[in-house]
Amino acid sequence: MNNSITARFKLDYGEFQLSVNLSLPNSGITVLFGHSGSGKTTLLRCIAGLEQAQQGYLEINGNVWQDSDGGIFLPTYKRPLGYVFQDANLFSHLTVAENLNYGLKRIKTRFDKPKINHILDLLGIQHLLERMPDCLSGGEKQRVAIARALVLNPEILLMDEPLASLDAKRKQEILPFLSRLNNELNIPILYVTHSQQELAQLADSLVVMDAGKVLASGLLSKTLSRLDLPLSQDHDAITVWNTTIVEHETDFHLTRVLFEGGSLSLPAIEGSFGTPLRVQIYARDVSIVLEFPRATSILNVLSATIADIADGKNGQSIVCLKVGGQPLLAHITRKSVAVLNLKIGKMVFVQIKGMSILN
Amino acid sequence: MNNSITARFKLDYGEFQLSVNLSLPNSGITVLFGHSGSGKTTLLRCIAGLEQAQQGYLEINGNVWQDSDGGIFLPTYKRPLGYVFQDANLFSHLTVAENLNYGLKRIKTRFDKPKINHILDLLGIQHLLERMPDCLSGGEKQRVAIARALVLNPEILLMDEPLASLDAKRKQEILPFLSRLNNELNIPILYVTHSQQELAQLADSLVVMDAGKVLASGLLSKTLSRLDLPLSQDHDAITVWNTTIVEHETDFHLTRVLFEGGSLSLPAIEGSFGTPLRVQIYARDVSIVLEFPRATSILNVLSATIADIADGKNGQSIVCLKVGGQPLLAHITRKSVAVLNLKIGKMVFVQIKGMSILN
Amino acid sequence: SYADTTLVAVASDFIKPMTEIAAEFEKATSHTAKLSFGSSGKAFAQIQNDAPFELYFAASEQYPLELEKLGFAVENSHFTFAIGKLVLWSQTSNFVDDKGDILKNGTFKHLAIADPSHAPYGIFAVEVMKKLNVFEKIEPLFVQGENIAQTFQFVTTGNAELGFIAFAQVIDTQTGKIGSGSGWLVPENLHSPFNQTAVLLKKGENNPATIALIDFIKSPPALAIIKKYGFGLPTR
Amino acid sequence: MFSPADIEALLLTLKVASLATIFMLLFGTPLAWWLARTRSKWRGIINTFVALPLVLPPTVLGFYLLILLGKNGIVGEFTTWLGIGALPFTFAGLVVASVLYSIPFVVQPLQTAFSNIGEQSLEAAATLRASPIDTFFSVVLPLSKSGFLTATILGFAHTIGEFGVVLMVGGNIPDKTRVVSVQIYNHVEALEYTQAHWLAGGLLGFSFTVLLILYTDLKITPRVK
Amino acid sequence: MFSPADIEALLLTLKVASLATIFMLLFGTPLAWWLARTRSKWRGIINTFVALPLVLPPTVLGFYLLILLGKNGIVGEFTTWLGIGALPFTFAGLVVASVLYSIPFVVQPLQTAFSNIGEQSLEAAATLRASPIDTFFSVVLPLSKSGFLTATILGFAHTIGEFGVVLMVGGNIPDKTRVVSVQIYNHVEALEYTQAHWLAGGLLGFSFTVLLILYTDLKITPRVK
Ligand SMILES: Nc1ncnc2c1ncn2[C@@H]1O[C@H](COP(=O)(O)OP(=O)(O)OP(=O)(O)O)[C@@H](O)[C@H]1O
Ligand SMILES: Nc1ncnc2c1ncn2[C@@H]1O[C@H](COP(=O)(O)OP(=O)(O)OP(=O)(O)O)[C@@H](O)[C@H]1O
Ligand SMILES: [Mg+2]
Ligand SMILES: [Mg+2]
Predict the structure, then answer these.
(1) pTM of the predicted model as reported, rounded to 2 decimal places
(2) Number of B–D residue contacts, CB under 8 Å
(3) Distances from the Cα of E205 to the Cαs of A259, C56, C223, E19, in angstroms?
């Protein structure tokens, strides 16, 4: 993974200024994260060429798409990208099928029919093909919009909160598909979301935006466990570990996975020995004990060292632990920090509830 | 709380049929929950009179708004309601301020100036008043739309995924405000959402929809713990308890609250003795042990009886426990059920991580 | 006597003399004559539909006679007030000879005439060409104006090299001859009499101003004006 | 330069055109709204009838209007019965004829503008307590500003330039129905080209100013973003 | 019923009106698009110039065109230089004059329709690889269907009914430039009222059919939901 996407933009809306200087990987999924109004959509529009920044430089895989100094500005339609708008933005005069075909007709290297059908199935829109957009529900529109961008087989995929209007179940179907799509076709994805869950499940890299500026950007696990970012304070603060499958305990429907520094038991997951697996651990699901517990329903108890402690809101403490080489965030009460006498460098046991580990 | 909203609708879109017969409370917040395309928006539109159902009967607080048998159909503009559309649907020719004023000018009993300003502050749109909607971000538009409906001081508030495009922080500010609004002004709110979190935080009642029909409806705590509904299977399955504050442990920034059958320690929360407090417990945050544990960072350990056990997905089991009189859902592995030999009627201890309890 | 006003419908080709006559009429009688111009056919249709006209000066005999027959005009009140004079004219000097031979052996692309289906000047122009046996040859070169004013415009703008127009349109009122370009004043014997005829309408029967105008148009000052503008005078 | 008669004609024209435009907007707006929204089968037919007068040459249309509005025509009998008298050769008749002839230029652009207004805006207005009429004025009108501009300009300009109908129905009567287009016609017929040029030039100059003000002041600029 | 001359005039009219409408759409569409999208200062002025010919009485406009297009006029000299010759009294001249006179009726409704198309649709098309021209045909055109319908109908009908300009520039030459409006006019002037009624009736009937087909077949129905 090398950072061969360079994006520098300065744009002034009067009351809002975008000013970014980013170097992003040209593979994997990069999540843009930030408050409402922080400039995520604006950045995506600049990359797509929908907004022409006063100063801009954009290079993707060695191709310069924009260079305001050199007078280069590739118009949007010449940029081989896929864009999912924040509002679905379907063509109201075309049926769903025609909306999908619109882009398909205009590209050269197309997916084959089964692949396209697979996309439509996955998004659950096969039965809607003959409908007009005005006769779709909010979520249905959004799914059609995603499909319309996906079938383009683009060199880079820009997605602006694509799943905001979808229910949890549908999200759980689409998210892994996006990951897989990304792996199989090696299309880098720039993905805007507010949801910690989507972030954890998808992101390889993370860009945190605030007021038109980039607060932090980098690999997911490193960026997530930085106690100086507001992320670690969030109710939904998480750590993400990359693991590989080592064993299936079929009796108990469990799978053991290996990470740098130990192993974890997860609910059974399909996959052969060595399959990489991403594991997300909510900071609130991590508890700290001094003695190794017996007779508990918690399956995963690991030894760890305390690396850092910071104060959170409402009497909370945020503890950054090292488990083997891996960082792990834990949210515990300040009372517990006092009772257990937690200090930086202290050796402890962490309990991780098996059920809270995802995909 | 009496069920003085009666809503019966039959509507046929060809490929989709809405057929509901609901009796809803005329106070508190009722959440409409269901997959994309299940008919939530359609139901809301019927109630608002935007869609005229072939057969329909709607009575609110004794006033019949619609009765297809009696030939009654109150047009939308005569129904004293507030509606937040799924897409913000602002008037593109009016500034934000003018959008807000549009409805205000047309009602008789208005909020006073400070109240309106409070709403604008809370939604963080004071600085946007002079903007045109085209110059707003997606989340900003949605917040203006919410404000536009709220300032109407309506008799019933219909909200279609109002917070879908907002970040967690903003949601955490708006959600309690909606609850308070509801309490103070006694405006019943019908609220569509996909988010379990919004559901738990807001809902007094719950309507679960699927394919145009109502799967279940009733008080939140009862509906949530029904093992026959898909809700209890969700990754984010929860139980919600109503509690009251009994004690503040200021040293440790903790608050103790009382519920039917015991007490809980929570991160410090403001409120005097007796203040009611809603507590949400994720099923995945509940673990079951047979012995009372010592030296753990988990503050809340309660004795419970196993009321029911069902099989979940991927080797999970869903356990419904009774803690005192309260139902409590726990997601644990099937292995644990076997190891701990859990059976209906068995007495156990449940550990609830202090940090996972929300306001 | 009291000053009365009469409303007169006037064929377009008679605008100039009629305007001057009306002014003189006012001076002489202190009555007023309001003039409404338009093609004869239009006025005819309007009179049939209750137009408030009291006197009608048409470019030909046909319409006044018809109106008498239909009862819109006072019976036997029609009279000839002027004789139309046709001229074959070109903007270019020395283009049209004073015998009209150009019709027989000249070369030109377009000849403008007023539409012979209804405009009197067109009808008489056709008669002239037929008499000279050049009609068949020249007909394909026709461009036709709706009325004589448009025909004149075809020629003055140079788009038609020559055309049959009213002598009144090119007369130099100082000299009484063709003012510019070149032209052939068509002898009256080459077509049937071009009697421009007026008629008293029922609406004007009892208006002293109308009756006074009928008298005035036959008076020497009026006849002088008619002559000055290139019309022949009626023989009595 | 301008004779008193020219000036009279100019003023009369202005009066006719303004009045006719106002009436066209008054009648045309509800008609266009209905045409834009209805799903009735009559829609196509009504639409056709609105556009139909256009295909007739103005003088011919004028001729038929003369018959229709004249005291023996259906409309004429009705207006006579009403005590107004027959309309031809009166100022009122001039306005009526102009309205009938130019109304497609008002109805059609309005219809286009109206049919472009999405249902959503109307729904938003309804949930904000605006009655349909109220919605029309507070939402539909401002959103169809450019359609109204087009309608007003086309209607107004076409009424000024119109000539055949006016001549036929009005009768070219000085200071009563002699509008400027007829006056220019008179000058041309009388071969008073200089007068005609002046009057045409004046009319153009005046109209240019009015149109330019309309186009720039109302600032129908393209939408942003 | 119809004399051969009538039928000739009808056919000629159809040819002129169709050709003129096609040219008006060809020139008017890009012009309208530019007017709808530009923020240039020239916008108001160009808009004014487009609408301006309307205010002149058709015969007067025809007179000026005759001068302009005539072999001594600027345009005439140019076309002569091109080897086409002067345009007056030719079929081509007829079409040119009709286009100049009726083009506001095409440009204005198109402009209204275009300015109603949101930027978003254009952006969606751009992200789907459609070039601006491609977008115009695949998105703008279908979304402005009702504007095009209006433009076509107004332009076509107005060209049929037009009379003054056509007469002046065309020269009313039988089976070359004598269109049906002139023919009907002639019948009226010649007091051949029966002939006039027949021809006017035929024209109305024909136009009615064409318009009705346009209005119903293209199904510009209001948008749903
Ligand atoms: N055309 C415009 N003119 C002026 N300001 C604009 C314009 N478009 C966006 N803005 C402002 O720029 C800021 C960033 O907008 P942007 O749409 O990028 O936010 P975002 O991060 O996508 O927010 P959200 O999560 O709400 O969609 C906002 O404050 C918005 O009001
Ligand atoms: N005008 C219409 N004509 C035909 N079908 C429609 C129409 N509007 C909605 N539908 C269909 O009705 C169903 C219910 O739509 P609705 O908008 O109520 O769903 P929803 O529950 O709000 O979904 P979402 O969460 O995606 O917004 C969908 O399958 C949709 O396709
Ligand atoms: Mg955004
Ligand atoms: Mg919906």
Answers:
(1) 0.84
(2) 64
(3) 85, 36, 51, 21
